[in-house]
Design a protein that fits this description.
Mean pLDDT: 82
Number of strands: 5
Order of helices and strands: EHHEHEEEHH
Number of domains: 1
Strand order of the largest sheet: 1-5-4-3-2
Helix content: 40-55%
Shape: globular
Number of helices: 5
Structural class: alpha+beta
Oligomer: single chain
Length: 108
């Protein structure tokens, strides 16, 4: 996986990861993350807003409490932290528990 310059900057800013560690995280996000199409409820609504904000381009994956936006060439464009209020919604409870474990593993 590759990162655009903007994607690398956002990984550094929002996750504090750079270089090989950043590539490792985006590989996990791309291959193990939940695609936008499989999401439901408030989380899907929030991700859809980001999807349309990016002119319906690329692939969007949720992994470890973050949204990763890739272009069609599998390069990371940007990443967003998912707002806590979206994750705390009862409709996302099962998803949140799983993602919290993943997030803790990523940030250690």
């Amino acid at each position: 996986m590759k990162l655009t310059r903007h994607g690398a900057e956002r990984m550094g800013q929002r996750l504090g990861k750079r270089g090989d560690k950043a590539r490792e995280i985006i590989n996990r996000a791309f291959f193990n993350g939940k695609p936008r199409e499989s999401l439901v409820g408030p989380l899907r609504k929030w991700v859809d807003r980001k999807f349309f904000q990016h002119n319906q381009v690329g692939q969007h994956f949720v992994h470890g409490g973050f949204l990763y936006v890739f272009n069609d060439e599998r390069k990371l464009i940007t990443t967003y932290a998912i707002p806590e209020k979206v994750l705390q919604d009862p409709k996302n409870k099962k998803f949140k528990k799983k993602q919290k474990k993943v997030s803790e593993a990523l940030l250690t």
